[in-house]
Every structure is written in C-alpha cells, then in structure tokens.
Amino acid sequence: MTSLHADEAFLDHYHFTHDPFASRVPGFKFFPAQRKPVLGQLHHLARYSQLLLVVSGPEGSGKTLLRQALVASTNKQAVQSVVVSAKGASDPASILRQVAQGLQVQRPELPAILAQVGQLALTGQEVYVLVDDAEDLSDAALTSLLSLAVGNAEGRPHVFLFADSQLLPRLERVAAGDECFHVIELQPYSEDETREYLAQRLEGAGQGIEVLSDDQVADIHEQSSGWPGVINQVARESLVEAMLAQRGAASRGGFSFSLPRKHLLALCVVAIGVLAAWFMQGRVVEDIDAPVIAQLPLGETPLSAVVAESGATAAPAVAPAIQFEGANQPLPLPLVGEAQPVIREPLAQAAGLSGAEEADAAGVSGVADIAPEPAVSASVPVAPVVPEPVKVAPVVAPPAAPVVKPVAPVVTAAPSPAKPKAPPPAAKPAAGGDWYAAQTGSRYTLQILGARLESGAQAFVKANGADYHYFKKQHQGKPLYVVTYGSFATRDAAQAALRTLPAKVQAGKPWPRNFAGIQQEIAQAR
C-alpha cells in the first residue's frame, strides 16, 4: 500500500478534513501561548534597541513559525522585511548577496547595503533582516551580520537570528565580550497548553480534543517535552497506533474488510462490469450451435481419391468423422518465480491489513517461497476422444476387398522423474533475538518492514548489510518477522539516521521504536 492510500485511510478513520498535524495546514491559526509575548517583545526591541536580536530554541520549538508571524504582523508600509536562509549559504558573501537581492542593491557589499537602508529610512521605511537556520552560519558570516546590525551614519537595519542554542557560545566568542546582541529563549508548553494546542489543531481538521484520551494527551506532552514541532509528530503517531489497535481487534473478532468509501465505490463499479460481461458471455454461448466437427468432403472428393493420396487402399466403409475439442486451448504452464520484499510503514496498515497481511494478500510477503506446479510432459498418454457417429450416405465398394495397413502406435518412453531441487540455504539472522536482548530498553531503532515468511526477512537482511536485524513476534495468532535498522541513543538520533537510508527504504516510511517494546514482543512470542 502506498503512503498516499495510508494517509487517506488515516483521514477516513478519524473523519479529518486534512492531516491536523502536518507542518502546513489550511486555515492555520497562530497559537498564542508562550509565543505571543515573544512576538510583542521582538517588535518592541526592534523599535527601541540597537542590538542584534537572537531567538533561540531546540529543533521543533517553533522558531520558523515565529519568524513567519513576525513578518506577517509588521506594517508593510513602514517595514521592508528581507528573509535569509543560512542552509547551504553560510559564508559572508552568500549572506550579503541574499540581503542585497532583497533590497535590490547591485553590489553585494556592506557599504552599498547600508546606503540603501539609509535611503529607505528617508522615505519612512525600516529594514528587517531575518536569518533562519542561523546555527549554520560561519564565524565570518556572524561577524558580517554584527557589523550590519551596528550600521553607520547612513543607516542601520534590524537584524534577527533564529537559531538553535548551540549558536550562543560561538556568538559570544565572535562578539569578544562586547554587548552587541540580545537573546530571547523560547519556552516549552505546559501540559494544559499542550492540550489547548492539540485542541486547536484538531478543531481545524473538523474534530475535537475528544479524539485523544487524557492518558494520550499526558503521554504526548511527556514525550514531546512541550515543544510544538515534536507534539505534532508524537500526536500523529499516537493516533495511528490507536487506529491500528482498533482495526487489529476488529479483525481478531471476525472477518473485517474496510476500505475508504471512494475505493469501495470503485470496487462496486468493477464488480457490476464483471457481472455484466459474464451474463453477456453466457448468452453468446447459448446461441452457439453444436461444436464444429471436421468431416470428410463427401460431396466434392471421392473417398477413393482421398485414400489414394494417403497411399492406402480404399476401405469399403467410411471412417467416422474426427472431432477436435479443445485443440485450440493453450496448455497451462506452471508459474515459477520469486517476489521481492515489500517495505511497509505502520501507517500503510491503515486500510485494514497489517504490513505482513497486505504483503500476503498480494503474494509477496518478503521473498516468497513459491512451490512450482508440476510440469506437464508432452509424452504423457492422453485418453482418446471417442467421436460421435456420423450418418454418411452409402458408397459402393470396389470388387476387391481392400486391405488397410494398420498404423503402428507411437510409443513414447515415460520421462524419468525429475530430481527435486534442494532448497537454498536460509540466511542466518543478523544477531537474532540475542542482539535485541543485549540492547538497552531506552534506546531506539528504525522499524523497516514485516514479513510473514522468515525467508523474506532473512533475504532482506542479507542483501542490505550488518546494520539490519530482524526478530519474531506474534501478530493475529501468526508469526511475523520484523526487520529493523541500527541502534540509537535517542528518538532524534534515529530520525536523523532515517534520512541517510537508501531512497527505496525511505519510501516505506520507516519509524523509530524503542527496544523495550520490541523486547516485550519477543518475550510474548516465545
């Protein structure tokens, strides 16, 4: 199942109008808790302070969103904002080039930029230079931005840096003890603010906070530490896990088949078309007369001529007509082949099947051990077809009784039985259950895929390297072999490693899991 179908199943299950925890959602409202006071402080310092302003916080703390809100809340008639990104452009020349382009300055040099800032000040316009991902700036670029913030007699822009906390020691070293910058550190949400933030996100997607239980909200706040970007990620994972648990319980209680409404409608249309084609085929078969029988052309060629051509003496009686039934049908051949492992994300189970169940339904759970059908030998004797008697007008036989030479039957030697091929040696699991037992429960790994056949997991691990391992668990009463990648100290480290995986592995949407849960599943499977 593709990730697109999995997203549709997620939205359909909770009746969302869109993914409430995506980075950009329609009709998004700025959440004021812990951020609106900072926004007001930035506007105040830009007006009355002469210092470079730094907004600091960890990844997912909402720095980029605050920068967007600062630009959106400025008076466009009185402020010209220039947004600069330090990603891939961390040297002074690249930074000054971006600022010069934003101000339409021909020369990307500090004096020319400050001269343009002075000209805009004469028209009543201030200049805001906002640098995102500022932790990537080089020390030389930081020095240039500090000089830009100080300005000269012609003009002085207001410079804002949005960066992780790791920038602060470097900035202090570059400033050499001078008081030339001011730091505003973002604070995480409290549990009540986390609940209000989740409620606002869910209401924007057409649902309420009732979708999450109190325990789920408390767990989301604990795992995210109150940072909004991490709240989005953990909340989505929590909803997906709850959805999969509900569908797993429903399938264990009885047969369950659930698809989005548009897919069910498409299946109904296909079924109606198949039924219509079947009825039409039935009517055509009823209109066909008796099967065509190959007969000798009695009215055109004498029987004696036919026999003469074959080299035999004419018989006194006419040979019965020969009927070939099924001669134009193809001989069925065995299907032999090997499928490839299918990568699945937990969200891909959203249409009612787990990753392994879906792979089994398609016939490709891991590397499938498909037993070939027995080959059909052409030398196997076939029972003769007894033709129906055909009434033929009597033919006058010649005086001499002909002698028909019998044709000796063709005897075909029976084929020697084929020797069964020895099964390929199974790949040994990379460390197996002992490797998982040796891991600390608080560490994380990346779950890659699940397969119903152990040979599928073994083949994937063998093909991709020693960093891949697999373990056995029980899923819906059947064994499931789950492949994982690596061992990481934190969830963030696992997420960072995910981006280094090959594209074909990333396409399955791997996700981080802690070893405590995996060790529990291994123990339950024993």
TrEMBL record:
Span of domain SPOR: 438-514
Molecular function in Gene Ontology: ATP hydrolysis activity; peptidoglycan binding
InterPro entries: AAA_22, ExeA_AAA_ATPase_DNA-bind, P-loop_NTPase, SPOR-like_dom, SPOR-like_sf
Cleaved signal peptide residues: none
Pfam family, one: SPOR
PROSITE patterns in the cross-refs: SPOR
Domain of life where this protein originates: Bacteria
SUPFAM superfamilies per the UniProt record, alphabetical: P-loop containing nucleoside triphosphate hydrolases
Protein name according to UniProt: DamX protein
